[in-house]
Design a protein that fits this description.
This protein has 116 residues and is mainly α. The protein is built from 4 helices and no strands. It has helices at 12-18, 22-47, 49-88, 90-115. Helix 3 crosses helix 4.
Amino acid sequence: MSTTPEQVPATPGDQAANGRSPEVRRADLDGLREDLGDTVDALARRLDVPARVQARREEVTAQAKEQLHRAQEVLEEKAPPVGRAVREQPGAVTAAVAAVLAAVLLVSRIRRRRAS
């Protein structure tokens, strides 16, 4: 049993397409092709792991350089007063360094004894 186009029931999509001019349908197809191309490009970017890794590496490197730059600025700002304090009160600075060193040694001995 074969059917002719006149015998096939029309669907709502067929009726909508028949009511539009060929130019409108071509424009619709062009829009769909563009959307499909954008989707394929987005999927290709997601699947391109080496490019994503490289982009992330560049981003992290830029952040690290910015943080280093800020740290250098703070150091340049704070270093002169610290240097002045060391020159003016060398005994106090030496005592502070010795106290920190003693604390580090004490903590390391306690940890070694607990580990044994």
